[in-house]
Design a protein that fits this description.
Distance between the termini: 113 Å
Strand content: under 5%
Number of strands: 0
Largest sheet: none
Radius of gyration: 46 Å
Number of domains: 2
Structural class: mainly alpha
Helix content: 55-70%
Length: 289
């Protein structure tokens, strides 16, 4: 098994000493870890004596080096990254190191493409993942900023108002169509006799009861005597708890349906006792009186 590289040793030391390696740490800025890998990278190219004390912000001092020396330090770090094990390339320390590399060397114009330098290594693979994550975050931030902009808010408000007006017009048109259908149905009802009219209302699930004029509703019991029992029950269900003329019609239907149901039960009993049809009707009328 190969000996750990100088950079891997720093990651091992950070684990053993519980150093903070968190990117953008607001408590300690991960200074001990960061200063160690910068100082050690410089040491690989004999530039360690140019840095100040242990807790100095070393990346701020890089500007004191000329571009050639800064490039030597960067290449030293890249060489360390090329052999860094995958487990460390997935750590917070790796992310901190990558984040540290970009600003100073981009700022000072070091002509090195980090992705190409690390191509084919675990560090290169995880660097690619970091870039993709960063691009997603940038895009999400752009979308958030765009969504919360004043122009976008005005446009959403405008669209909401348009949708509201459109839905209102749609409901009006739908109501007009429904009213026309009701008028057609009411005209057809007016041509029927009372019993046929009630049967039609009982079977039509679309017609609105409130749209039917009062003068089309039967007011006499003889007008509903020819109505079938199923139609009567259907009408009672449709009328439900409506009052006034509908309430009166419901009570007439309930009485009629009750009489029919009662007569059917009496009829079945009478047949069992041997009474003929005329005798059964006379007996039923005497019982009702």
């Amino acid at each position: 098994m190969a000996n750990p590289s100088w950079l891997e040793n720093i990651f091992i030391e950070a684990e053993e000493n519980n150093w903070c390696t968190k990117p953008y740490c607001t408590t300690c800025a991960s200074l001990e870890f960061r200063n160690t890998f910068w100082r050690t990278a410089a040491k690989q190219v004999n530039l360690e004596n140019r840095f100040s004390s242990n807790y100095a912000r070393i990346i701020d001092e890089l500007s004191e080096f000329d571009s050639g020396k800064r490039e030597r330090i960067l290449k030293s770090l890249i060489d360390g990254l090329k052999t860094l094990p995958d487990s460390y390339c997935k750590s917070s320390g790796f992310r901190t190191l990558i984040i540290d590399i970009y600003p100073p060397f981009l700022k000072h114009g070091i002509p090195i493409a980090l992705g190409e330098e690390l191509s084919g290594t675990s560090a290169g693979k995880n660097l690619k993942l970091m870039k993709e994550h960063h691009q997603r975050m940038v895009e999400e931030a752009r979308q958030w900023s765009e969504y919360h902009s004043k122009d976008a808010a005005k446009e959403r408000s405008k669209q909401k108002r348009i949708n509201k007006e459109t839905n209102h017009l749609f409901r009006i048109e739908k109501s007009k169509i429904q009213n026309l259908r009701n008028i057609e149905k009411i005209n057809a009802l007016s041509k029927l006799n009372p019993t046929e009219r009630l049967a039609k209302i009982a079977k039509d699930e679309i017609i609105i009861l409130e749209a039917i004029p009062i003068d089309l509703l039967p007011t006499k019991e003889q007008d509903i005597n020819g109505l079938g029992l199923l139609d009567a029950f259907s009408l009672i269900r449709k009328i439900d708890k409506r009052k006034k003329h509908w309430g009166r019609l419901r009570r007439m239907l309930e009485k009629m349906a009750g009489d029919v149901t009662e007569f059917n039960a009496f009829n079945i009993h009478s047949q069992a006792t041997g009474l003929n049809g005329s005798l059964r009707m006379k007996q039923f009328r005497k019982m009702k009186l």
